[in-house]
Amino acid sequence: MAKVSINIATGSLLQEEIIVGIDLGTTNSLIAIVKSDTHEPIALREIDGLTLVPSIVHFDEYGNVTVGNPAKDLLVQQPERTIYSAKRLMGKSYGDVSKDSGFFAYNIIDDGTDALVKVQVGDKFYSPIELSSYILKELKKRAEHILKTTVTKAVITVPAYFNDAQRQATRDAGRLAGLDVLRIINEPTAASLAYGIGVKHNEEKTIAVYDLGGGTFDISILTINNGIFEVLATNGDTYLGGDDMDNAVVRYWQEDCGVDNSSLGLGSHTDKSLAQEMRVTAEAAKVHLSTHDVFEGKIAGQDVRITKQDFNELIAPLIARTINSCSSALKDAGLTASQIDAVVMVGGSTRVPAVKEAVKQFFGREVFDGINPDEVVALGAAVQADILAGNNTEMLLLDVTPLSLGIETMGGLMDVLIPRNSKIPNKAGRQYTTQKDGQSGMRISVYQGERDLVQDNRKLAEFNLTGIPAMPAGLPKVEVTFLIDADGILKVSATELRSGVAQSIDVQPQYGLTDQQVEDMLLASLTHAKDDIKMRALVEALTEATQMLEVTEKFIAKHGDVLSPVELTASVTQMERLREAMESRDKDLVQSETERLNEVSRPYAERVMDAALKDAMRGKKVI
Ligand code: ADP
Ligand code: MG
Question: Which of 11, 121, 184, 534 shows a CA-CA span of 20 to 30 A to 369?
Answer without folding.
Answer: 184
